[in-house]
What does this fold into?
Amino acid sequence: MNLLFHIGRFISWHGMIFKFPENWRMYYKETVRQMYEIGIGSLMIILVVSLFIGAVTAVQFTYQLQGTMIPSYYIGYIVRDMAIIELAVTFSSIILAGKVGSNIASEIGGMRQKEHIDAMEIMGVNTASYLVMPKIVAGLFVIPVLVSIAAVVSIGGGYFASTYSGAFSHEEFVQGLRSFFQPWNVCMMYIKAFTFAYILTSIAAYQGYFVKGGSIELGQASTRAVVYGIIVILMADYLLAVLLTS
Amino acid sequence: MIRAEKVFKSFSDTKVLKGIDFTFEKGKTNLIIGKSGAGKTVLLKVLVGLFKPTSGQVWYDDEDLCMMSKNELLTLRMKVGMLFQGNALFDSMTVEENIRFPMDMFTRMTAKEKLDQVNYCLERVSMEGINSKFPSEISGGMQKRVGIARAIVLNPKYLFADEPNSGLDPKTAITIDELLLDITKDNQITTIINTHDMNSVMEIGDNICLLHLGKLAWQGNKDEVLDSNNDTLHDFIFASPFLQKLKARALANGPVTN
It folds into this structure.
């Protein structure tokens, strides 16, 4: 019952978010600020995690392929497709659900508690729109870019782990990278990236916007933003995997 | 003028306001007073439109707040300013950006015009030259003044203040009271102040509404407070032992000592 209430409110709340802005310039400024916060603020962690994810993928598959008849250059192909189809987009989104999601929930929830939202509403500002839409739009622009960077860095991580350990030569890895490439996989990555960006920003904003109580409730809302964000991202990942590969 | 007519407000099973009828007059500092939990903040939020009354009407001059369309409500919002108990200044913005925010959002004024208006408002609250400071860099009293400056930046017809003196020393509290009184008189606006500060009641209470357990227990002005026989009012006003002693001495026409 409670779940249905939240789903209903979440859906109807979108009617308030996507309204004609009172002032485009203010919304644009806020969107640019959010793009900076989400993009530049998350770049370092995305770089580090992607690098190691690619490296670990390469090491694990090297181990799996040892003693098999599969050609060694396949490692480049496996690392590339794992990064593009799944690891870069899902790992990055889960990390961003933690970092950006908790940040969004805390920021909006804090504004609710400090009466900033009431102050804006009395001024006549559509707070659902002004506070949430720029975050969603910024996420939709920036998160696919971060995912693209994550994919490239993951492949780079796989390359370094494979070639510097001496397991494979540069030529073998590059041959694998160039083999069996399907452009649709890149499309799939971006479809997932846009979907996950929407999920993580909107769920986090919802948790912050409707927070009630004090600092304990704000902490709980922030935690819910991360937990629900990750669960819904993984559910959407499964659904998209089924839909996009069938 | 703002008029509350048979205003009821409940939260689940809890009845907070039980049929409030009161007229908040133009050009006067209208005070909502009462003990904690009497329903002052809820009444203020109903008046300003943050809460919808369970039943009853709120009239802004001859317009019913509850029946307004979204556009009418937006037009009304341009005429309303509010000072919050915690100031509600946006932390990430400077003082100037905070005061400029309503103009940035809703007007097509030039940058020069906006700056002039910001400086005028800061001058009005005696806070010139702090444009580039952040709210965290100024004191609580200064934050209140900046909050007032932001509330009056669009020249509102209706000004609301929720506990404007909370957390301030008595001298600063009097300054804030005087400022609100001056703005009310100079601009001939309807000001509604929610307070339980006795100095405010006796200094600026042009029109007082005493709430008790969600009902209107007494109404009058500062000059009528001492002459009233209303027990609820006296329990509230003379709550401290010192003031009770003062009242006893006053009634006996004796000299006032601590």
Summary: Chain A has one domain: 27-245. Chain A has a mean pLDDT of 93. The two ends of chain A are 34 Å apart (CA to CA). Chain A is about 85% helix and 0% strand.
